[in-house]
Design a protein that fits this description.
This protein is 59% helix and 10% strand. The chain has helices spanning 11-38, 45-62, 64-74, 82-88, 100-111, 115-118, 154-173, 177-194, 197-210, 242-247, 252-273, 306-314, 318-321, 324-333, 343-360, 362-365, 374-389, 391-396, 404-422, 431-445, and strands at residues 121-122, 128-129, 133-140, 143-150, 217-219, 231-235, 275-277, 285-287, 293-295, 301-303, 368-370, 425-427. The protein contains 20 helices and twelve strands. The strands form four sheets. Strands 1, 2, 3, 4 and 6 form a five-stranded antiparallel sheet that branches. A three-stranded mixed sheet has the order 5-9-8, covered by helices on one side. By secondary structure, it is of the alpha+beta class. It is globular, with a radius of gyration of 23 Å.
């Protein structure tokens, strides 16, 4: 395994890394088209592999928010060619780790001690490495522990990384800088929270305790006295990441059990806690042979404002969809529609967002849903492509959707994707929360 001795943290150094990668990609294209003159039937598979390798190499060396982008993109296998999504999946827990001297340096800064002065045993070679930090195995007495060590400088580089991303995002999404800013601030806030391990320890303990009654979930105990703002210590959880779990060919019953536990976990957080583990990629779950699910990494938690909660989930209820005037009010409140829209523009957005909402709400419409149905996921991707290329929507140039939708949508998409990869059929339905939302709107009208 290749270890990393240094992370570029200054804006200049990180910018130069991006520029160097751009030059490599340009060279890949020149090489590709030179080969194509000799072989006109040549496809872009090799080009995609080379570009994915160069881009991932740069992002993984930069760590932090740069690598986080790759991690997020790896969750959507419809957005990028397979070569990219396959390579970027490594960002979930297989990124190049830091070398031992940098790990020791972080401990000395945090505790004034080296790792072996804090623990009875400490493995300097990381077991897993992701975008913000890497995990080491340790022992203290009879306890087997997981110790997450944050990469140096990742918090300091977030703002400069987002400034580099902003011009690309402006062109990609055809938004004004003002409209993009609300989303940039939301992402920046969440990324900064992910670098605050003291906040993560607090949230990890609170959510784990609140969800302890849910069948089939396993949570670690966290140790405040062995943690700091850059180091987080918890019990070691057994289990395998999704690809390793599936490689063992689990039965449909076990996969359905694991899927049900994930669904129940997210359902409870959304509707009871109004705060949700908003980073549902495969690297954050450890699946056990009996279908139990270990949940790790509460760095990204989205707290859901009460008013937004009622409006967001009202959109999937048939009783709200059946009242056009009320539906439009709700869509305005969560910024899918604007009061300034002319009649034609309003009709386009209402139809587009209505179709997507009804499609995403299908799992809630029946007591049981088969997420392993690839046609359903393809339909979501196809509709997303249709909406993003619609000339009216594309030309509007404004930021549609509340900033709160960014991480809630991401959470549901990540959950759907996990359940699809598990080929899981789960008991869904709306339960009592649908009646609570309907009662809220009845009271609002009165």
């Amino acid at each position: 395994m290749k270890y990393q001795d240094k992370i570029a943290t200054s804006r200049m150094d990180r910018t130069l890394k991006f520029i160097g990668t751009g030059a490599k990609i340009g060279g890949n294209y020149i090489k590709h088209y030179a080969k194509k003159t000799v072989n006109p039937s040549l496809d872009k598979e090799e080009l995609h592999r080379d570009n994915a390798e160069d881009i991932y190499s740069t992002l993984s060396s930069l760590k932090g928010s740069a690598l986080k982008v790759a991690q997020m993109l790896s969750m959507d296998r419809a957005v990028l060619p397979k070569a990219y999504s396959d390579k970027f999946t490594m960002a979930q827990y297989q990124a190049p780790p830091l070398s031992a001297p940098l790990v020791v340096q972080t401990f000395v800064k945090s505790f004034g001690k080296k790792p072996n002065d804090v623990f009875d045993e400490f493995a300097l070679n990381a077991k897993n490495a992701a975008s913000i930090g890497q995990v080491h195995e340790a022992k203290l007495g009879d306890k087997r522990l997981a110790v997450k060590v944050q990469y140096p400088g990742v918090a300091d580089s977030i703002q400069s990384d987002l400034r580099m991303v902003k011009p690309i995002a402006l062109r990609m999404f055809n938004l004004s800088e003002k409209d993009l800013q609300k989303y940039i601030l939301e992402v920046e806030g969440k990324l900064l929270e992910e670098t605050d391990y003291e906040l993560e320890l607090k949230r990890s303990s609170e959510i784990s305790e609140a969800c302890a009654h849910i069948d089939g979930l396993v949570f670690a105990k966290y140790y405040k006295e062995l943690s700091s703002n850059k180091i987080l210590t918890m019990d070691w959880l057994e289990g395998k990441h999704l690809d390793e779990f599936l490689a063992d060919a689990p039965t449909s019953e076990v996969k359905n059990l694991a899927g049900q536990h994930l669904w129940d976990f997210y359902n409870f957080q959304m509707h009871e806690l109004k705060a949700v583990h908003a980073d549902p990629h495969p690297g954050n779950f450890l699946l056990q042979a009996d279908g139990k699910v270990g949940v790790i990494d509460f760095g990204c938690v989205k707290e859901i404002p009460k008013d937004f909660y009622f409006d967001y989930f009202a959109l999937i209820l048939p009783s709200i969809q059946a009242e056009p005037a009320l539906l439009e009010q709700v869509m305005e409140r969560i910024e899918m529609l604007f009061p300034s829209d002319d009649t034609a523009t309003r009709a386009v957005f209402k139809e587009a967002f209505g179709k997507m909402t009804r499609l995403l709400a299908l799992p809630f419409a029946t007591p049981e849903f088969n997420f392993g149905n690839d046609d359903y996921m393809k339909e979501i991707y196809a509709l997303g492509e249709e909406i993003s290329t619609n000339p009216v929507i594309r030309g509007a140039g404004d930021g549609r959707g509340s900033r709160h939708m960014l991480y809630i949508n991401r959470t549901y998409f990540g959950l759907y994707s996990l359940l699809n990869q598990l080929d899981a059929t789960v008991q869904t339905g709306t339960g009592t929360w649908a009646a609570d939302i309907e009662a809220h709107f009845i009271a609002e009208k009165v």
